[in-house]
Amino acid sequence: MYRLRVEKERFYTVTVPDVRLPENEAMEIVLRRQQELVEVLEVTPSSSALDPWRTAARVELSASEILTLPTPVMRDLRYALAMLPGVVQDPSGNLHIAGSATAQTLTTLDGFTITHPITGRLDLRVSVDAVREVSVHHSRYSTEYGRGSGGVLELSTAMGDDRFRFSATDVLPSLQHRKGIHLNNWTPRATVSGPLRKRRAWFYEAAEGEYDVAIVEELPRGADRNRAWRLGNLMKVQVNASPSHLLTLTLLTHRFRSPYDGLSRFAPRETTRRVSQGADFFALKGQAYRPDGLLLEYGVGLAHFRDAEHPRGDAPYRLSPEGSGGHFFRTADRRAHRLQGILNLTLPSFFWRGRHEVKIGTEWIHVGARERVRRRPLILVRADGTPVRAMSFSPTPETRLTNVELAFYGQNRWVFASRGVVEFGLRFDWDSMHRTVRWSPRAAASYLLTADRRTKLTGGLGLFHDATPLDVVLRSQSGRRQDLFYARDGRAVEEIVEIAFRADVRALASPRAFIWSLGVERQLPAGFVLSLEFLQKRGHHGWGYLPALESEDAMPARLDPRERSAVSPAVGPLMRHQVFELRDHKRDRYDALQATLRWNLREAHPLLASYVRSRARSNAVLDFAPDMLVWGAQAGGPLPWDTPHRFLLWGWAPLPKRFTLAYTVEWRDGYPFLVVNEAQRLVEPPNRRRLPTYFSLNLHLERRFRFLGLYWALRAGINNVTNRPNPSTVNNNVDSPHFLTWGGMERRAFVGRLRLLGRK
Fold first, then answer.
1. DSSP 693-738
2. Confidence band for 602, pLDDT divided at 50, 70 and 90
3. 697-712 as b/e, with b when 16 or more CB fall inside 10 Å?
4. Distance CA 488, CA 382 (A)
5. Is 130 helix (H, G, I), strand (E, B) or coil?
6. pLDDT at 41 over 70
7. Which residues are CB-contacts of 118 (< 8 A; sequence separation ≥ 6)?
8. Mapping DSSP to helix (H, G, I), strand (E, B) and coil, where does residue 62 land?
9. In angstroms, rounded to a whole number, what is the distance separating the alpha carbons of residues 430 and 437?
10. How confident is the model at residue 567, as a pLDDT?
């Protein structure tokens, strides 16, 4: 007879006092996941020992952490994810995991890929109230995850149970004091869940809306604000088809409109674009299991994306050292879809010199993209108004691209001792565009070094491939561009360059990265856990365009004279032809040493402190594209999201009378940027300069109370307590009188939030 105690992070501890285990019989222990329920006011599970079976380099955010941490934009999940070590957010809002590009990250929602098929960005948003947990894998992740050398971002959403529940957040709009008192934003969110039939079927509904008013103080009244709105909805239905068969239906929709997108002190209203985005995701997933441990998981998912950007008019677009003028030069309409099928099989565990847990699976994806882009001429002028450079584009027809991806994988977890485990697996990927088989072997191990189970050593290595980048391939179908460089008088043309893009995908190697990492964890007294992790990533055969030597006879015909006359009537006879050829020349390097201290004694009031010393470099910093204005030779240097030093501190603590103080602190180096002249030619090595050091302190105070038979949470706080500017943009033109003038400043902001948590 034994006393059994089962503990797992983010689950409630289970203790069974009297256990008798007859020979050759198994015992099933069900752990209940910790949730934010109004019936439970305080949860204080005991500290858990280190998990020897966990080999992946992974960090997580629970639902309570996502909703409690005071981030600059609490309605956007990306800002909460930026509070994790190894995850940085660039000025555009995109996330970068372990020094990688956004498109190199595999992002899944309940097991299905949801990133944009063309750009690889996370444009399909889900309400933060609907997220149950987020996991970010930096390295040592299973072969189950493919097409992402940058890491894995897993989103798990909530589901209803046998009790009706509801919640609401930000039902009242907030105000801002900028050029008077105005509406700031209104972001109402609501969730409803419960049984369709008790113990058989349940539903979950999460709706959200957003209305934002962005005011640029440097612009005149009447032309200083952009009003954007967004709508989203997640609906899930889960049915027990049988006691051992579970079906889940998911429908996620997202709509976004921004009439003056890009408005800033350097871009007045007439130069902005009307931007619209729409995305829909549908998935059906099934899980069937047998008592012997066999688990079958299958499903199909369909995601569809629609994007459009339109300028405010047809006036010529003009760039000067003071900023931009006229109307934006590009009109674009894009459609993309992803049809995905998955099949995973977890086999019953067996014993041979230890316990083996084997998982195999396959995946099928069909990706389609269609875009229509129209580019009009644009002119770069000096401070005195004379032209320095002009660009025109040939007409381009609608382009289409399809790709079929297949994958097979096998993963084995070998528990060779009570204190150690080894995982190894192999994955094969193939796609119809590249037509080569890519194999990805991976291995990882974990071992408890001490008998008290308080020190763990973990390490692993593997080969990780990226998906074929559709946006890069589509550039080869963008037509031709002509650049005219003018003399100082603004009349004579000194140089004419005709540019074209060319790609032969099957002649390229597959982009991939070799990653190895080593970590050690130590459980300290009072529930603290200290971890040290070193990660090295070497990316090879990254795709990008490079200038190729071409003769004039090898070039296509020149631009139509009408296209050329739209820019300048005087074109000299001397012309240089330049072909940018897609090559697999890019090599990225990332090294990071990470120290993290986390407090797990009271899961209801966590604390995390981390410091990351990292280095993200590439031999090809410039990303040549038809719309790229920067002109210069390809060179190496820091990647745009490189942050050599970064410190994070966040958590929350209880105060008297049911008050809670939540806090986040971030300090890091500023992001690097390019320096150009009035013709947008590079005048320094890429990314030599950086934005100022970033520092932000957010403090929020929240109190929970009962009113009208309901449970509420009222929050008030201050973002950027120190009022540090923290610029996100800069005037990088050395010929401008305002060179190195910072833009996109942050200001101290007072915020409030009212949440309805449900009934007593």
1. PEEEEEEEEEEEEEETTEEEEEEEEEESTT------EE--BTTSTT
2. low
3. bbebbbebeeeeeebb
4. 9
5. helix
6. no
7. 305, 334, 336, 369, 371, 470, 471, 474
8. strand
9. 5
10. 43
DSSP label at residue 102: G
* Integer-rounded Cα radius of gyration of the chain: 28
Does 751 score more than 60 pLDDT?
yes
Secondary structure of 244-294 as H, E, C letters: CEEEEEEEEEEEEEEEEECCECCECHHHCEEEEEEEEEEEEEEEEECCCCC
Which of the 8 DSSP states describes residue 378? E
pLDDT of 184-233, one tens digit each?
A: 678 899 999 999 999 899 999 999 999 988 877 777 877 888 889 999 99
Average pLDDT of the residues in 664-687: 94
In sequence order, the β-bridge partners of residue 481 are 393, 499
Q: Which residues pair with 580 in a beta bridge?
A: 501, 547
Q: Both tokens of residue 73?
A: 């934009």
List pLDDT tens digits, range 149-173.
999 999 999 999 999 999 999 877 7
Relative to beta strand 399-417, strand 387-393 is unpaired
What's the average model confidence in pLDDT over 535-552?
A: 84
Q: What is the model's pLDDT at position 557?
A: 38
Say which DSSP state 143 is in: T
Residue 200: name the closest of 242, 236, 158 by CA: 242
CA distances from 168 to 27, 675, 715 (A): 40, 47, 14
**Locate tokens 């309901």: which residue?**
710
CB 550 within 8 A of CB 474: no
DSSP class of residue 452?
Answer: T
- Residue 301 CB burial class (10 angstroms; 0-12, 13-18, ≥19): buried
| C-alpha–C-alpha distance, residues 353 and 358, integer Å | 15
- The type of residue at 132 is R
C-alpha to C-alpha distance for 301 and 524, rounded to whole angstroms: 44
Among residues 254, 508, 475, 491, which one has the least CA distance to residue 384?
A: 491
Residue with tokens 């009072």: 526
Contact indicator for 703, 660 with CB cutoff of 8 Å: yes
| Sheet order of strands, 57-62 included | 57-62, 131-139, 151-157, 105-109, 112-113
What's the CA gap between 641 and 621, in Å, rounded? 11
Instruction: Burial-class residue 87 by CB neighbours within 10 Å (0-12, 13-18, 19+).
Output: buried
Pairwise CA distance, residues 749 & 731, whole Å? 25
Which residues fall within 8 angstroms of residue 222, CB to CB, at 6 or more apart?
none
**DSSP structure string for 317-372:** EEEETTEEES--SEEEEEEEEEEEEEEEEEPPPEESSSEEEEEEEEEEEEEEEEEE
